[in-house]
């Protein structure tokens, strides 16, 4: 994304907290996120399970209410009226990771793809819209699939039906949550190629939510790495994956087959409880740089343990929220 490119979607200081029963501390699932998705751009949001990436995606889709911060579309703050949200949800569509669960087994392919059109009152030329969407998703001739049911399709075909359901509304943005995680390896490449082709043909912007940096390597223009509710590193894909600045990114990247040059890093422990986010760098309890004594040698261990890092600004530049020399963030927030 070039600095002057108009943003299709942006979040500013986005926060989402969940409070349990009683007077316990709130769990900060999203704890201040600035993120930009440019027009025609593919951004991969990467992190372990429980890091907050799905909650962030749901909030961007207006399926989850934020505690603070804003979602902006074309530079304008997203409205909260029913009319504004309905118009927004037509423009921003979700593709789920489990096509079997996303499709009603009692509905035909035609009904599944037409459902969104009917919800939004777009019934004029419905059959033509459904056929066009199926064709764009690679199910040709589309009429051959109209009366088939999900159980009659392969996993890849079911995912294409889900994608067709999103395309039927002619969206500007697609949020794809683990779009290939449930598919066989032989089909994964086909679906990724389809998403790339749709970007080229339709000018779509895609936010791809995944735990797999290998997937990001193959599809994304930029990568944002999330840990414990915050983006800890982001930047152009080639640059970030060739020269990761954050120890967490290095650990995730070390198990990607394409990066044989990196020594495998095994992280100890689990991500901390989001109701008790550690002081200083939130990654320091699991950080290999701290555990190995390297942080002490560099004179940054006290900062790692006690000096908070700011929210990474949304930009196309490569930056990391880390006290290591050479990262973009080393000041208190």
TrEMBL record:
An example of a GO molecular function for this protein is: ATP binding
Record's superkingdom?
A: Bacteria
Q: Which InterPro entries match?
A: AAA+_ATPase (IPR003593), ABC_transp_ATP-bind (IPR050319), ABC_transporter-like_ATP-bd (IPR003439), ABC_transporter-like_CS (IPR017871), Oligopep_ABC_C (IPR013563), P-loop_NTPase (IPR027417)
PROSITE patterns in UniProt? ABC_TRANSPORTER_1 (PS00211), ABC_TRANSPORTER_2 (PS50893)
Which residue ranges does the record assign to the ABC transporter domain?
A: 11-253
Which keywords does this Swiss-Prot/TrEMBL entry list? ATP-binding, Nucleotide-binding, Transport
Is ATP-binding set as a keyword in this record?
yes
Keyword Ribosomal protein included in the entry's annotation: no
Which NCBIfam families does this chain map to? oligo_HPY (TIGR01727)
Q: What family does this chain come from, according to its entry? A: Belongs to the ABC transporter superfamily.
Q: What is this protein called?
A: ABC transporter ATP-binding protein
Q: Name the species this protein comes from.
A: Longivirga aurantiaca
Show the taxonomic lineage.
Answer: Bacteria, Bacillati, Actinomycetota, Actinomycetes, Sporichthyales
């Amino acid at each position: 994304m070039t600095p002057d490119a108009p943003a299709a979607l942006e979040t500013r200081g986005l926060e989402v907290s969940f409070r349990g029963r009683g007077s316990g501390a709130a769990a900060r699932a999203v704890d201040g996120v600035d993120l930009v998705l440019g027009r025609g751009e593919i951004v991969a949001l990467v992190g372990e399970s429980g890091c907050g990436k799905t909650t962030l995606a749901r909030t961007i889709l207006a399926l989850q209410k934020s505690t603070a911060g804003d979602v902006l579309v074309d530079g304008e703050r997203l409205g909260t009226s029913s009319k504004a949200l309905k118009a927004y949800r037509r423009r921003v569509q979700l593709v789920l990771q489990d096509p079997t669960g996303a499709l009603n087994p009692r509905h035909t392919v035609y009904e599944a793809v037409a459902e969104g059109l009917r919800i939004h009152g777009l019934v004029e030329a419905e059959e033509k819209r459904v056929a066009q969407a199926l064709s764009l998703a690679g199910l040709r001739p589309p009429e051959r699939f109209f009366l088939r049911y999900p159980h009659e399709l392969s996993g890849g075909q079911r995912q294409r039906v889900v994608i067709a359901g999103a395309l039927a509304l002619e969206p500007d943005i697609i949020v794809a949550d683990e779009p290939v995680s449930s598919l066989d390896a032989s089909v994964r490449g086909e679906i990724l190629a389809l998403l790339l082709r749709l970007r080229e043909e339709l000018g779509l912007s895609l936010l791809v939510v995944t735990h797999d940096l290998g997937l990001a390597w193959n599809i994304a223009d930029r990568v944002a790495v999330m840990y414990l509710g915050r983006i800890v590193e982001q930047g152009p894909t080639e640059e970030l994956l060739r020269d990761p600045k954050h120890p967490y990114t290095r650990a995730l990247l070390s198990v990607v087959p394409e990066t044989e040059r990196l020594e495998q890093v095994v992280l100890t422990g689990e991500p901390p409880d989001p109701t008790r986010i550690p002081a200083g760098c939130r990654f320091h309890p699991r950080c290999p740089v701290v555990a190995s004594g390297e942080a002490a040698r560099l004179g940054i261990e006290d900062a790692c343990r006690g000096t908070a890092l700011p929210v990474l600004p949304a930009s196309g530049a490569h930056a990391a929220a880390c006290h290591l020399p050479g990262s973009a963030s080393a000041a208190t927030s």
